[in-house]
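Quick start: what a row looks like.
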Amino acid sequence: MAMLSYKPGDLIVSSTPFAYVVDPLNGAGRVCDYCFKRCESLKPCARCRVAHYCNKLCEASALSEHVPECCYFEEVFPYIPDVTVRLLTRIVHKLQKERMKDCKEMVQGDMRTLEEMESHSNDIMNDAVMLPKFHASWATVKYILGEENVPPLLDGVEIFGKMVINRFCITDSDLKPVGQGLYIGASIFDHSCDPDAAYVFEGTRLTVRATRSLNVNSVREIYICYVDKLLLKEDRIAALQRQYYFTCNCVFCKEDARDPFTEKWSGLTECVRNLQLELDKAESKADVERIASRCREILECQCKELPSNDVAKVEALLLGFQCGTRLATNAEAIGLALQVMEIMRRVP
């Protein structure tokens, strides 16, 4: 087989989701439930008023996926099931018509199937936190689709596991989470805290591009990062074990490895992250301006003497950049982005 060669920025894969859904907490009413584009004049589904669409074409295109949940939404409104239940329902609904081994996508000459996706079903069955979540989700799926239309319980654990282990959080152009999706092609990439590639979203389409020069025999030798790279080593290791049931052995996670980022004041990091949560929910310009002002204060005062790779400082710069893009203070946003790029360039 010929070697696969990539330069930084080269496209490795462009993948559309097998199943996807808007997150009721973050994306509902803000993006179209079909194309995930932001629109000022989204129209709600006339029946359930939960799903929103930017035009009649998107509404018609989403119909086959939305019909099973629509009746349920109408029945339980204003309660809306969480994103896990909605995504699981859509996957099970699609698997009524297709076998797992027939759900596949070609990735650079390598065939990836839903059947071969890792599920960690045994780990989930022994997880005191995740197992109750499965049972609660599965009960709702059975109610929505009808018990006669769902597979046996153990098959349900397998499907649930494939979903929670392989799903992606879909983000908008501001990197704000708006939904979740299961991408068969993109699930082929394993994790490393020192990744070879990064992924972004254009609507619901996921694209993976090289971040360094690569020469590999197979796309399976290329790694992406599953967690926030700004997490400190012990937090990354804990998150990967908790969410994906494995221990990372990359160069950044070895026992004697030096953390690429530092943290002088955990309280300051928490403060910045709380501001980020506020920004994610902010609707008015006044709220964004207030957060931007507080962010400037943090950068000018508390972060002034911190090293460039301090977690709080980097996250404050990213927060300021997001505020700048939302307020259209472009010069400020570009300046902050350049600082972040320079820091990330120097980090090993």
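That is the whole record. The two ends are 32 Å apart (CA to CA). The first helix runs from residue 56 to 61.
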